[in-house]
Write a structure and sequence with these properties.
10 helices, membrane, DUF1206, 269 residues, mainly alpha
Length: 269
């Protein structure tokens, strides 16, 4: 199959109404998870003790403990896989922008999103089926044992930091409105935009802390620092005025969750 036929096939699959409907559910799942992570983070900021990590895994684990949790997790697996698959079709198709460099960037972003949504789907699958997990931390520890591995961890940290910075930029400039097909007019639309601004800035700040800790962890050969969002948020709470900052980030993460619900309805697909 040549590139043209692959792109055509991907476009046909991406245009499937059934796939797009289920994939929109993936944005709704993301909304629920961000709100739960925000709630856990706020609990930490207020000095409470949470038995779950302040990240996607912790949010899924907390949801799993509810009466409706297993059903939600099965739905999350299906919806997130559909959203990841739709992002794959976008990565292959490459969009319609006449600028080749912008099409390439669109492919890269779609591929990265496909990996991210797919990873969350795997976590949900592991929790609902009781499968083993934790391979991510094991990989980080293994990488820390060599110079090349530490360089890779630092590079990942720089990448995460860049993504966080882009989230802040996207929030401040309201560039996220380009992802929506309507839904930003009227009073309700103003709420969606406000949630998007706060959400992207808050999530960007959280990702920025994660990126910094990955770099610091690599420089200090400390795998405990390069473990993800939960450690980043708890580290933020330990700084001067950190609990206030964590509280603001928690609100931002929850706001991103609210925006994700609007995205489930109005996202361009």
């Amino acid at each position: 199959m040549n590139r043209s036929s692959a792109s055509s096939s991907a476009s046909s699959l991406g245009d499937s109404k059934a796939l797009r409907v289920v994939a929109r559910g993936g944005y709704a799942v993301s909304g629920v998870l961000h709100i739960v992570v925000g709630w856990i983070a706020m609990n930490i900021a207020l000095g409470g003790s949470s038995g779950e990590d302040a990240d996607q895994t912790g949010a899924l684990a907390q949801i799993a403990e509810t009466s409706w949790g297993p059903a939600f997790l099965w739905f999350a697996v299906v919806a997130l896989v559909a959203l990841a698959l739709w992002q794959v079709t976008e990565a292959i198709a490459g969009g319609t922008d006449p600028d080749p460099s912008k099409r390439t960037m669109a492919r890269v972003k779609a591929a990265a999103k496909a990996v991210a949504y797919g990873a969350i789907a795997v976590i949900a699958w592991n929790i609902v089926t009781g499968s083993a997990s934790g391979s991510g931390e094991t990989l980080t520890r293994t990488l820390m044992e060599s110079t090349v591995g530490r360089v890779l961890v630092a590079a990942v940290g720089v990448g995460i930091l860049a993504v966080g910075g882009y989230h802040v930029y996207k929030g401040v400039t309201k560039k996220f409105e380009e992802d929506l097909a309507g839904g930003t007019g009227g009073d309700l639309g103003k709420g969606v935009v406000a949630a998007g601004v706060a959400g992207y800035v808050g999530k960007g700040a959280a990702l920025g802390v994660v990126g910094v800790l990955f770099v610091v962890g690599a420089l200090q050969s400390d795998p405990e620092k390069a473990t993800g969002l939960d450690v980043a948020l708890r580290s933020l709470a330990d700084l001067p005025y950190g609990k206030v900052l964590l509280g603001l980030v928690a609100v931002g993460l929850a706001a991103y969750g609210v925006y994700s619900f609007a995205r489930a309805r109005y996202a361009k697909m």
